[in-house]
Amino acid sequence: MNLYLKFSCSLILVFFILTDVYADIIPSKIREENINNQIIEYVFDADIIKISSDIENNFNLIANENSESKYSILLLHGRGLYPTEPNVIDPLRISFIEEGLDTYSLQLPVLDKGKSYNEYKQIFKYSDARITSAIKLIQPKKLIIIAHSCGAHMFISWAKKNNIKNLSGFILIGAGAVDKSQKMIDGLDYNDISIPILNIYGEYDHGSVKDYAAIFDDAIKDKNDYFSKNIEIKGSDHNYLNESNLLVDIVNSWLKSL
Fold first, then answer.
1. pLDDT class for 19, splitting at 50, 70, 90?
2. Domain that holds residue 117
3. Spatial separation of the C-alpha atoms in residues 153 and 79, rounded to whole Å
4. What's the burial of 237, exposed, middle or buried (CB within 10 Å: 0-12/13-18/19+)?
5. How far apart are CA 143 and CA 103, in angstroms?
6. Of the candidates 130, 143, 154, 162, which has an alpha carbon nearest to the alpha carbon of residue 78?
7. Which end of the chain has fewer CB within 10 Å, C or N?
8. What pLDDT digit, counting tens, does each position of 163-208 carry?
9. How far apart are CA 177 and CA 179, in angstroms?
């Protein structure tokens, strides 16, 4: 009887392990709502628009619209963060508003704290859908997408499934950031891309980000791409602590060169 019980318990344990491994990972609405409650009262310079996708309802798009703007910018934040994240996204967002540009910052799906890149890539279908919904709202103006860290991965996932020829350009900041012993999903084939691209990374960024920057650098050199740039920010880490002003200057300078 004891042997039978041990065998039964083992089968039950295996069942729950397999169920957990193969269960669908979905975004954490509780954490996202907590984020929304914390930031909503501090947004004074833009409207908070609730939009929906084909698979989700009611996520935030922070929007500042200017009818005279020559193009629009969509900002995509890093892993587990929010549309007014203070080191990368908000300094850029504020600078674009001051320049009189249509500026949108999207709340991307989040997971509970401590989740890895491999877990986040399982919710890319949600970020794909959110990005599509945001772009539909922004059209028909010329669009530039700027994405940081996991936001860059989510943008790349979206770009591989959609026509990016309608974009006027895009900027990747800290692209390639994955956890130890994990690998990024396939990147973009830059040989097939004719729009301008800016890739930015920090001097003290993650090794995987520097590896991605080297691949990008080789790609734009091979195709003699004059407008695309690969720029290292000296003294900066992955989150651009104390270097956000320099990041803003580099981005704005490149945008004005287009």
1. very low
2. 26-257
3. 10
4. middle
5. 10
6. 154
7. N
8. 898 899 999 999 999 998 898 877 889 988 999 999 999 999 999 9
9. 7
Q: What are phi and psi of 190, to 5 degrees?
A: -70, -20
Distance CA 114, CA 59 (A): 22
Is 33 part of any domain?
Answer: yes
CATH of the domain at 55: 3.40.50.1820
Q: Is residue 3 part of a domain?
A: no
- Angle ∠(243,248,250) on CA atoms, nearest 5: 95
**pLDDT in the model for residue 226:** 87
Distance CA 186, CA 180 (A): 17
- Give the chain's domain count: 1
231-242: average pLDDT? 95
**150 touches 89 (CB < 8 A):** no
The pair of three-digit structure tokens given for residue 59, joined into one six-digit string: 């996520």
Tell how many helices (H) and how many strands (E) occur in the chain: 8, 8
Using CA atoms, how far apart are residues 81 and 35, in angstroms rounded to an integer?
8
For the chain, give the number of residues: 258
User: Which pTM value belongs to this model?
Assistant: 0.90
Order the strands of the 197-202 sheet from edge to edge: 47-51, 59-64, 102-106, 71-76, 142-148, 167-173, 197-202, 229-233
- Decide if 211 is inside a domain: yes
- Tell me whether residue 16 is in a domain: no
For tokens 């996204």, the residue is 89
